[in-house]
């Protein structure tokens, strides 16, 4: 904006404010106001016509590009995962070679359609988008003319209010009369300029509306025929598509359900599809408990899933003992007092065998064994302590299928009844149970406790 234009904008600001607040006298022309309202609608709709025609051309291209992308995605999904990427000949086509071939054929067909439809899409750009841009340029010139007319209206209202102020003043002084004559001259100039722009727009805007209708009519007809040609090409090319993978003789919905089958049930049966919060954390905590406080190295595969009381561990401990001594943790199959609930009053005591060094470690049981000699008591041999009632076995019911992820895990199907060996109060941790003669650990959030 030039300095002159800035000065005029500052001078018009008070009148612009009064006009918005409907203060003072204002010039009104209903004929022009109706034409200006119609002109605003024309300007808006021409912009929309240009944008929508451009979007249509982009949408057709985008649709074809999306179809190619869809075919590429299906081709990748159908490819098997076996084989080495460095050696394409090692790939085993074990999945869906027919689907891969159909995806390639479909992609080639859509690429051919893109080349075929390029001239039609180019016609939309040349016959609709570009003419709309030319019309928008013309509308822009008219908008500048309407803005000029509005500025002249502000000047006219401003000059008119100034003249009215001096004209209605009682007992004007000679200086006031001089200012009134000056305001009257400025008012006549402002009215002449306003009438010039206002009358020109009132006369020529209706002519523009008539010409606009004649201008848009061939665009509409051309757009219709171009659309028809595009749809016909898409229909004929896809109808002539000879891909045996697509069966067009059956109903679409029936064919979909037939090909789908029970894939959802099969996917739901996979353990990895039932991720629950805390599963990995509980697995890690159970692994730490399994190894104990540093007694075994978690990186040793030979000891990763062996129990500290397993026969291998006992034999390993026996190798470090003195010759002739009982292995560490050994218990004789013949219990003292021949009763399963009996506990020896001399538990922890053992006498070394004859001929063995006295430095041999004592046995952990006083029962008769090849390694130790115990002194029996007549009283102890005839004593039978009361047998306590066996506690009720706690059981759980499986909510989901679980397949063992590592040695030592317990596998079970849904609705299986599992006997609890050891559990915690937190269902996000790992519990120990027995099912179908097998004992192992399983996630506690896969089961539900049964009432005893």
Automatic annotation (TrEMBL):
Residues 293-320, 331-353 have a biased composition (Polar residues). Residues 289-379 are annotated as: Disordered. GO terms for cellular component: actin cortical patch; mating projection tip; medial cortex; Rvs161p-Rvs167p complex. Residues 17-269 form the BAR domain. GO terms for molecular function: lipid binding. Residues 32-59 form a coiled coil. SMART domains: BAR (SM00721), SH3 (SM00326). GO terms for biological process: actin cortical patch localization; endocytosis; plasma membrane tubulation. Keywords: Coiled coil, Phosphoprotein, SH3 domain. Gene3D superfamilies: Arfaptin homology (AH) domain/BAR domain, SH3 Domains. Residues 391-452 form the SH3 domain. Residues 361-379 have a biased composition (Low complexity). This is BAR domain-containing protein. It comes from Zygosaccharomyces mellis.
């Amino acid at each position: 904006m030039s300095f002159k234009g800035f000065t005029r904008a500052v001078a018009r600001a008070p009148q612009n404010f009064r006009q918005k607040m409907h203060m003072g006298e204002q010039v009104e022309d209903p004929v022009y106001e109706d034409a200006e309202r119609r002109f605003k609608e024309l300007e808006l709709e021409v912009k929309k016509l240009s944008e929508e025609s451009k979007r249509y051309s982009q949408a057709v291209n985008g649709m074809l590009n999306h179809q190619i992308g869809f075919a590429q995605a299906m081709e990748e999904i159908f490819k098997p995962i076996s084989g080495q990427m460095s050696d394409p000949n090692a790939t085993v086509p074990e999945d869906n070679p027919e689907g891969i071939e159909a995806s390639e054929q479909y992609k080639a067909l859509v690429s051919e359609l893109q080349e075929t439809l390029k001239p039609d899409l180019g016609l939309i750009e040349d016959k609709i988008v570009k003419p709309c841009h030319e019309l928008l340029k013309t509308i822009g010139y008219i908008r500048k003319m309407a803005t000029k007319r509005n500025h002249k209206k502000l000047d006219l209202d401003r000059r008119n209010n100034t003249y009215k102020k001096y004209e209605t003043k009682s007992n004007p002084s000679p200086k006031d009369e001089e200012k009134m004559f000056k305001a009257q001259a400025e008012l006549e100039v402002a009215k002449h300029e306003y009438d010039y722009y206002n009358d020109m727009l009132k006369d020529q805007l209706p002519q523009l509306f008539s010409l606009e209708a004649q201008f848009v009519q061939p665009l509409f007809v051309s757009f219709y025929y171009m659309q028809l040609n595009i749809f016909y090409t898409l229909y004929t090319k896809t109808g002539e598509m000879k891909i045996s993978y697509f069966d067009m003789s059956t109903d679409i919905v029936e064919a979909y359900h037939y090909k789908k089958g029970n894939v959802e049930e099969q996917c739901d049966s996979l353990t990895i599809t039932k991720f629950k919060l805390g599963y990995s954390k509980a697995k890690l905590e159970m692994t730490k408990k399994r190894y104990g406080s540093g007694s075994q190295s978690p990186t040793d595969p030979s000891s990763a899933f062996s129990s500290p009381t397993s026969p291998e561990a006992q034999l390993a401990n026996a190798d470090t003992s003195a010759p002739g001594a009982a292995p560490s943790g050994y218990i004789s199959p013949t219990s003292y007092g021949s009763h399963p609930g009996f506990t020896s009053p001399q538990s922890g005591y053992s006498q070394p065998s004859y001929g063995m060094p006295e430095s041999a470690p004592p046995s952990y049981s006083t029962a008769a064994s090849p390694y130790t000699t115990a002194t029996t008591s007549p009283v102890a041999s005839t004593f039978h302590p009361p047998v306590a009632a066996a506690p009720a076995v706690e059981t759980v019911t499986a909510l989901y299928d679980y397949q063992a992820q590592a040695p030592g895990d317990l596998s079970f199907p849904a609705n299986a009844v599992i006997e609890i060996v050891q559990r915690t109060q937190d269902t996000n941790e790992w519990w120990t149970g027995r099912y179908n003669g097998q004992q192992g650990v399983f996630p506690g959030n896969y089961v539900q406790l049964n009432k005893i």
